[in-house]
Structures are given as structure tokens and as C-alpha cells.
Amino acid sequence: MEFAKRLDNVTGSAIRAIFALLAQPGMISFAGGNPSPDSFPKEDIANISASLLCEHGSSILQYGGTPGIGSLKNTVIKMMETRSISAKPDEVIITSGATQGIGLAAKTLVNPGDVILTESPTFIGALQTFLTYEADVKGVEMDDDGMKMDDLEKKLTLYRPKFIYTIPTFQNPTGRTMSLERRKQMIALCKAHNVLILEDDPYCDLRYSGQPVRPIKSLDEDQLVIYLMSFSKIISPGLRVGAAIAHPRVIEKYNIAKQGEDLHTANLSQEIVNAYMLSGKAEPHIEAICAQYRDKRDAMLKKMEEWPKSITYTKPDGGLFIWVDLPKHMNAVDLFKQCVDAGVAYVPGVHFFPEGGHENTMRLNFSMASFEQIDKGMDILKGVIEKNI
Ligand SMILES: Cc1ncc(COP(=O)(O)O)c(C=O)c1O
User: Fold this and answer.
1) How far is the centre of ligand 1, averaged over its atoms, from the C-alpha of 137 (Å)?
2) How does pLDDT run across 82-118, given as a tens digit for each residue?
3) Using CA of residue 154, residue 159, residue 164, residue 165, what is the dihedral sign?
4) Which of 40, 100, 118, 123 to mutate to test the pocket of ligand 1 (most atoms within 8 A of CB)?
5) What pLDDT score was predicted for residue 50?
6) Co-location of 243 and 373 in the same domain
7) Cis amide bond preceding 212, omega within 30
8) Domain that holds residue 344
9) How far apart are CA 168 and CA 181, in angstroms?
10) Ligand 1 within 6 A of 97 CB?
11) Ligand 1: distance of its center to the CA of 126 in Å?
12) What confidence tens digit (pLDDT) does each residue in 48-91 have?
């Protein structure tokens, strides 16, 4: 069988491969990036689905429009106001998760060989998509305040990229948040270089400490930003609902590109999300999951205080991840095998870097494991690290 060459350099997500190991009985996972399964508002969604289907079944079960259901678009526009982003209906398209918003950016903007700049490290799913569209992905160095602007400026001049992909808030994989100052600098640089920004913001509402930082999109007077939001982390990833907010010309292209992918995001999912957001239950629900994740983050960070001092790690104000830098001589890919044998899994950091390397890094997720599992798993991890340090 002869497959298309465009996939020659694309491998399946390393995390999905790690998922297979997690099925082993007793395995404690700090690997995935999933919301906690007990965070889902199952009963409310069951009730909403039943009444939606009884009352509007004929239209919900019919084909729908590609841009999405008008009432959900209005709900998204209202949510955007709370993020200081003003959007009109022709600047919004409902997507099947932020994942589709990333794919549509690549599909509508990238020709083979075009450069995309990303944080280094960045989200594996985006890397995989960009490679599928034969982009040349270049990483921009980051520190605790997000992408480093001197490196960004150098690479904007050197590579003349198609766009910059950034996760400025509670970044996957590092948990870091880009400072407001850097966000302003990024907009100014992109204006000067006439480069678009793809701002991926699925973790925005999962804040456990510190003050909110405005999205880059809210600082964008020239419509340079394509902003992606998602309901995955606040309601359910299985419903597959998100949205892209951008200049109407971008949305029009997204609309054309989406038609050939899935025609539209499932009507039932869109209606459920809209009804849930309007029910008055979403806000207390988000508060409750934030409280739970805050405690889990704190439990994990507390265990890390006992780690050898030569190990550094991020202390995120939100999101789902902690990023670990082991001493340079250590290799988190090798440690991974020992850890899995001992019953705990994480994701080796090397997979998140566009140019590879950084074998001494790892990503830990704190949302999926129970408190008992965090306690036990972190002890196991500490034991393996101390044996190898
Ligand atoms: C940065 C980032 N973008 C997008 C996604 C996917 O989100 P969605 O479920 O909305 O497609 C994830 C999920 O892990 C993510 O971490």
C-alpha cells in the first residue's frame, strides 16, 4: 500500500501510545491531560439532552449549518466579553474542539514548507497537525514569563513565518502563563512583521491562584489574532465543542475548510453546551472543578518540596500540568521505563519540543489521579529519581 508522503514524518501522538500502558492494573497516571472523570456534570447533561431531543429532536437530528448554531455563537460572544474580547457573529465559528481550530488554521494558511513558530516546548497535538500540513515548525525559547521576545523577534526576521502558535495561559505542557508585557510585545512584533497569531486558550477558566491576564486577542486592534476557545476542560471533551474568533475573512475560510471535514459540529453537542452554559449551573460547576484541581495541584507540589534541590519545576496558577527539569545528565525517557515498572507514568518532555532534545524534562498532570494516587505516585517517582540522580 502506498500512503501519502505528507504523513511520512508524522508519528502518532506519544501520549496516545503511553495511554496503552495506563491500562495496566494499578498504574498511577500523571501522563494524560484529561479532565478528572468526576468533574463531568453527567446528570445535568442527561436531563438537558432528554428535554432537547423531546422538544427540538427534528431539527437537532437534521443536518445543520457549518458556522454553528446561532444561540451558541451568542453564548460564546457573551463569554468573550468576560475575557475583554469583543466579537460579532461573523467573527465566530463553532468548531469541533480547539483541535479543529488548530487544524483549520493549518489547512487555510499553510503551504508545504511554510514556517510556523511555536513555544518550545508546545502542545503535541498541534505539532502533529502542523507536520501533517507539511509545515516547518520552529520553536521559540521560553522562560517563566512565556515566549522570549528577543528570540521571537530574531526568528520572525529569520524565518518569516506564516503564523505564531501560542498557548499563553497555563500552557500545555509547562503550565506557564505569558506576562501581559510580553503579550503586548508580541502583538507589536506581529504587527511590525505582518504575521498572524494563533492563540489557543482552552485552560483560561481553570485558574486557581493569581490574577487573570488578558488574552492576546483582547489587545488585538488589527485583527491579527485567531483566538481558540474550548468547552472541553470546563464541561466535557467528549462533546467536542469549541470556537474560533477571528477576522470575518478568516472565519469565511474556516467555514469553507470545515465543510469538507465534518460539515458542522454535532448539533446535539452544540445544543447541550449552550443549554448548560445558560442554565446557571456552569459557573458553580467551574468553581467546583477549580477548587478540586487547586487542591490536587497543591498536593502534588507539596510532595515535590521533598525532591532533591537540583530539580526545578513550574508552580502553575492554573491548567492541568507541572513541568519538571531534571539535572542535565538525567534522561526522562530512560526513567520512564523504570517508573512504569514501578507503577507510575508521566510524559517524557522530549515529545513536546519541535526540534527534539531536552531529554531531562518531563510533564506531570495533576487532574486525573486521586489524592491517594498523587501521594503514592509521587513517592514512587521520587524513589526512581533518587536512584538515578
Ligand atoms: C493547548 C491545547 N489545545 C487544544 C487542546 C484540545 O482541546 P479540544 O478538546 O478543545 O480539542 C488541548 C487538549 O489537551 C490542549 O492542551
Assistant:
1) 18
2) 999 999 999 999 999 999 999 999 999 999 999 999 9
3) negative
4) 123
5) 98
6) no
7) no
8) 5-41+283-388
9) 12
10) yes
11) 9
12) 999 999 999 999 999 999 999 999 999 999 999 999 999 999 99
User: Are the C-beta atoms of 116 and 168 separated by less than 8 Å?
Assistant: no
Which one of 278, 308, 327 terminates a domain? 278
Looking at residue 25, which CATH number applies to its domain? Answer: 3.90.1150.10
- pLDDT of 9 over the 80 cut: no
Residues in the chain: 389
Q: What is the mean pLDDT of the chain?
A: 95
Q: State the closest ligand 1 atom to the C-alpha of 237, by its place in the atom list counted from 1.
A: 9
Residues 123 and 269 in one domain: yes
The reply to whether ligand 1 has any atom less than 6 angstroms from the CB of 101 is no
Residues 256 and 310 placed together within one structural domain of the fold? no
Q: Does pTM top 0.90 for this prediction?
A: yes
Domain boundary among 278, 294, 315: 278
Confidence of residue 29 (pLDDT cuts 50, 70, 90): very high
Query: Is residue 48 assigned to a domain?
Result: no
Q: What is the rounded CA–CA span in Å between residue 318 and residue 70?
A: 31
Residues 101 and 26 placed together within one structural domain of the fold: no
User: Phi and psi for 276 in degrees, rounded to 5?
Assistant: -65, -45
pLDDT tens, residue by residue, 356-376: 999 999 999 999 999 999 999
The whole-angstrom separation of Cα 245 and Cα 95 is: 10
Work out the average pLDDT over 243-266.
98
In this structure, the answer to whether residues 31 and 76 fall within a common structural domain is no
Pull the grid cell for residue 219: 489587545
Total domains present in the chain = 2
Q: Tell me which long-range contacts 192-196 makes (C-beta under 8 A, separation of at least 24).
A: 193/156, 193/157, 193/160, 195/156, 195/160, 195/161, 195/162, 195/163, 195/164, 195/224, 196/109, 196/162, 196/163, 196/164, 196/224, 196/225, 196/226
DSSP symbol at 5: G
Same domain, 252 and 362: no
The grid coordinates listed for 321 are 500540568
